[in-house]
């Protein structure tokens, strides 16, 4: 009732502002949606396909009889980064030419039959499976099959037209990808990295809160998220590697001198943090539910361990560029030392009861070591870049 009274008293003044704010938020949402990388890529693909289709009838000779392959080439050459587009374009052209050559050999030896078609497709699949063929491997048997079946008696003209139009479409696609806002994925990668950091901090916070709830805790989501954390780490690494790849040959990168070394360092630190969070999560799950291994946690250690987990979560939540990070790391270190002092006071309960807590303390210390710049990382580093 009080809320209704307040709203009614201020309704003439606040409601228009709320509507205007909602409208601005809607416009911002639409603007972000239209300018998102996916929407931009869709628009560029549409433009490339339209240009390729318009230019296809202008090709000389028999190539103009097969205009529908030009849009296909444009579609195949459009990828999120320029280097990936160029690499896939070369691989697809190689696959097309090898497939044409394979079909030509079959036609020289024999007329297209069930056996020769099967042989060409099988051999093309075998060749296309080679690692160096990449995405172009699947076009070896497809092209051979098209030349033998669709080309038929006009295999020469069909092969020339098919290869020419595919090449035209690829060139158009590469040009559009280069000239119209060439993709630069640095900002999305950093947003994913920041989001992953917050997710890890939230996970540790949930564990800390569970320790001071009624025992056993009612909330158990944190105990089953180990694989989800690993999957999130893999997605973030892919995003950072894509951002690194998107700079190569990109004119926009000339004006954006972003150094991704710090992002790779932050990613490596968070991957190590994820490893240790999974470890302590399994230990705590064993303390609470006795699975996968039954373990003990003395009741007197729960509050101090919860406080240490809260402090470590705060340290995880801030990035290297945050001036508060050293302070949070120091506070987390003191909180972990408090757990050690509490363990010394409980030494009479026996080593079997304190060993699981000691394992958690070690993981917390390794997390802080991974987060502190300039210190040796806890686990074996994953490769920083795909070269």
What features would you describe in this structure?
One of its GO terms (cellular component) is membrane. Residues 52-176 form the Integral membrane bound transporter domain. The chain is mainly α and 387 residues long. It has 3 domains: 2-35; 43-179, no CATH class; 194-371, Up-down Bundle (Methane Monooxygenase Hydroxylase, Chain G, domain 1), CATH 1.20.58. Helix content is 72%, strand content 0%. The longest helix is centred in the first third of the chain and has 33 residues, at 2-34. Mean pLDDT is 79; it is low at 1-22 and 376-387.
Radius of gyration, in Å, reads 30 Å
The helix content, as a percent range, equals over 70%
In DSSP terms, counting alpha (H) and pi (I) runs of 4 or more, how many helices?
A: 14
The domain tally reads 3
Task: Say which CATH homologous superfamily of the largest domain is assigned.
Answer: Phosphate transport system protein phou homolog 2, domain 2
Distance between the termini: 64 Å
**CATH secondary-structure class of the largest domain:** Mainly Alpha
Structural class: mainly alpha
In the CATH hierarchy, the third-tier topology of the largest domain is known as: Methane Monooxygenase Hydroxylase, Chain G, domain 1
H-E string: HHHHHHHHHHHHHH
What gross morphology would you assign? elongated
pLDDT under 50 segments (min length 5)?
A: 1-22, 376-387
Which percent range describes the beta-strand content? under 5%
Largest sheet descriptor: none
Write the CATH architecture name of the largest domain: Up-down Bundle
For the secondary structure, the number of strands is: 0
Mean pLDDT: 79
Keywords: Membrane, Transmembrane, Transmembrane helix
Pfam families: FUSC_2
Transmembrane segments: 42-60, 89-108, 114-132, 139-156, 162-186
InterPro entries: Memb_transporter_dom (IPR049453)
């Amino acid at each position: 009732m009080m809320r209704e009274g307040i709203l009614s008293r201020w309704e003439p003044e606040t409601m228009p502002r709320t509507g205007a704010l909602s409208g601005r938020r809607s416009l911002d949402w639409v603007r972000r949606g239209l300018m998102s990388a996916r929407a931009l890529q869709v628009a560029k693909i549409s433009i490339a396909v339209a240009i390729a289709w318009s230019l296809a009838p202008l090709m000389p000779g028999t190539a103009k009889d097969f205009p529908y392959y030009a849009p296909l080439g444009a579609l195949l050459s459009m990828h999120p980064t320029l280097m990936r587009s160029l690499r896939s374009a070369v691989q697809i052209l190689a696959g097309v030419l090898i497939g044409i050559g394979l079909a030509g050999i079959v036609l020289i030896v024999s007329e297209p039959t069930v056996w020769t078609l099967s042989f060409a497709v099988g051999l093309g699949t075998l060749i296309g499976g080679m690692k160096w063929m990449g995405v172009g491997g699947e076009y070896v048997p497809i092209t051979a099959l098209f030349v033998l079946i669709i080309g038929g008696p006009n295999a020469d003209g069909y092969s020339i037209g098919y290869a020419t139009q595919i090449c035209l479409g690829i060139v158009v696609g590469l040009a559009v990808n280069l000239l119209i806002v060439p993709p630069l994925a640095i900002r999305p990668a950093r947003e994913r990295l920041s989001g992953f950091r917050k997710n890890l901090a939230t996970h540790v916070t949930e564990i800390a809160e569970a320790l001071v709830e009624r025992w056993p805790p009612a909330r158990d989501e944190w105990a089953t998220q180990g694989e989800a954390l690993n999957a999130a780490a893999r997605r973030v690494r892919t995003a950072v590697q894509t951002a690194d790849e998107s700079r190569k040959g990109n004119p926009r990168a000339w004006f954006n001198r972003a150094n991704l070394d710090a992002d790779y360092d932050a990613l490596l630190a968070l991957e190590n943090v994820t490893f240790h969070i999974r470890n302590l999560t399994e230990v705590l799950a064993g303390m609470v539910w006795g699975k996968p291994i039954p373990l003990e946690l003395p009741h007197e250690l729960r509050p101090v361990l919860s406080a240490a987990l809260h402090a470590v979560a705060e340290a995880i939540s801030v990035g290297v560029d945050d001036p508060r990070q050293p302070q949070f790391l120091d506070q987390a270190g003191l909180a972990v030392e408090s757990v050690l002092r509490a363990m010394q006071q409980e030494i009479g309960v026996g080593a079997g009861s304190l060993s699981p807590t000691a394992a958690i303390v070690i993981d917390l210390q390794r997390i802080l070591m991974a987060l502190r710049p300039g210190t040796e990382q806890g686990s074996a580093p994953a490769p920083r870049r795909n070269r």
